Amino acid sequence: MNNFCLTAISPIDGRYHKNTSILKNIFSEYAFLKFRIKIEICWLKKLSSIPDVFQLPTFNENTNKILSDIIKNFDYEDAKKIKEIEKSTCHDVKAIEYFLSQKISVKLNDPTILNFIHFACTSDDINNLAYAVMLKKTRSKVLIPYWKKILLTIKDMAINFQNVTILSRTHGQPATPSTVGKEMLNFYYRLYRQYNQLKNIIILGKFNGTVGNYNAHMTAYPLINWSEISEEFVNSLGIDWNPCTTQIEPHDYISEIFSCICRFNTILINFNQDIWGYISLNYFKQKTKQNEIGSSIMPHKVNPIDFEKSEGNLGLSNSIMNHMIAKLPISRWQRDLTDSTILRNIGVTMGYSIIAYESLLIGLSKITVNFSELKNSLNDKWVLLAEPIQTMMRKYGISNGYEELKKITRGNYVDALIISQYIENLNIPDYEKDRLKKITPHNYIGDVINIIQKNQ
Description:
By secondary structure, the chain is mainly alpha-helical.
């Protein structure tokens, strides 16, 4: 750990910097500058390809390469120069424009080009597309891979433990048995829905000037179909075009993305809590490491710290995202700047989620099913069979079956013999009695296997 990590205020860049390093090339100030440099240069190239913008000649291969190399070779020294310019401009996007003017004037002896840097653009034309590209990259390179790992891990547990009966608990009390696999499948199915929704959210971008009407564009070149040019340009970045905006892209799609991530995270909070509870019941055992310490004073402790850490960071991520979900789609009239500082924190909320995902995956790799404890927890739970017995009684028209079994089982000790004798005295066909007698707390799992096989 370097000095920066030790002096960082945020644990994202400090304690957990290794977990979140994947985000630095997307959400750092350096990365944000580079994305905007790319948008500016791509727009300059697009303008050169429009025949009616005859004052800007079509770029030849050499010019295009020089401009592309500015993006490719953008480094920390370039970023520092932009930040120096910003000290005097007090405007980040204008600083980028001035930087590019300086850079291009050195590399290309053509003053005409300089007039078309940031041509007809408002700041959000550049920024919104940069954020759109950043979020697209985050979805494909960060979120989707992490979500896949989590889904596959839980799916494997669903398949591997589909036959392992577990004592269910509703309201915290013993209830109808399930299997470990089915409980994992429940979460897998919920998470998989969010995974599919995230993949299908349309990422939008706008490029239409100060209040979204191509006012400056039309003044300079009234005969050009700027709407068509805008759509082509936005699409060329792999982004869907938003044709109707004010000065800013309204961020509705960002709110949709964050809402989906929040739902995924909320389901994982639920999952973390359930696994934590099963560990406390000793249904899962935690693997131990020789030098690992669970408590500073209690030598025996093996704490479910990974699931607690995951739950805590998911909560932090969701708290920030929920504010963004509510705030980002709101802008006074054609534009206010409250979204700017909010958007700069996207990396923060993603960082907390990544820390949580890593911790969850580590936690899952360190637990094993405690088969003996699961078996023991069901051995004396014959009261659970009151449910199938009274259901069978309903089938054959025997009145008050529920009430009778309530008297026998509620708060009372019930064993296999009591259940067997009760079944024997029922006025139902013998083959039905035989079926009921074969049911035990260990095999009363309904259609679990079929459900798992159909929905994995």
